[in-house]
Amino acid sequence: MANLFDLTGKTAVAIGGNGVLGSAMAKGLAEHGAKVAIVGRNLEKAEEVVKEIVNNGGEAKAFSADVSSKDSLVQVANEIEQWSGGWDILLNAPGTNSATPFFELDMDEYDKIMDINLKGIVLTCQIFAKRMIEQERKGSIINISSVSSTTPLSRVFTYSVSKAGLNSVTQFLAREFAPNGIRVNAIIPGFFPAEQNRKILDKERIESIMGHTPMNRFGEAEELQGATVWLASEKASSFVTGAMIRVDGGFGSMTI
């Protein structure tokens, strides 16, 4: 059974792999044998993740890119291709957030969040999936969504909209790429205190979250590794595409 999750010989590209959640998922892929490209705007943070992977016996390299820029993504795709020859797994984990009230929201802020959370993933899939198809590489694309994608959360209007759009992108591309042997799925994390949401986790909001989470706790970033490795593995999830996999402590099952 262990061979179901063996990623030896595979190359994974982790967009946003320098963040709290993205880095944990990237480390999980590396621990199961994948060679990992850590891509982020902050190269220094990406290099820190690479160092951890290498110290743990894995293989990885840091790359810098801006997911909202097509030129930047094309450049980093070329750099990764020179390094690894191609890739089999694409993990899309960039993200930004804001708690600006709706009537105070200006379009510059709206555009910034949408550019990173939604447009950036569309661009990434255009560039990286196209090369997978050209190289006739079967593989897996894993998008990181949110519980706010299915039931919008208070205080995070634009974030919720962007993640709802991401779910639609995931299902559309699952249909689009299936004939090429590329599976496209999304992970829906519950509440994991990360950079983009920590600033709005006041006492009242934490109490509300716990009241809607049957497991009565926040998730740990490492708890996303299992779903990530499963979706990345061609053997373990070969018939899974267009799925939204919840890792949310039961948040999505709660009503009153």
From TrEMBL:
Keywords: Oxidoreductase. One of its GO terms (biological process) is carbohydrate metabolic process. It holds the Pfam family adh_short_C2. This is Gluconate 5-dehydrogenase. GO terms for molecular function: oxidoreductase activity, acting on the CH-OH group of donors, NAD or NADP as acceptor. InterPro entries: NAD(P)-bd_dom_sf (IPR036291), Sc_DH/Rdtase_CS (IPR020904), SDR_fam (IPR002347). Belongs to the short-chain dehydrogenases/reductases (SDR) family. NCBIfam families: PRK08277.1.
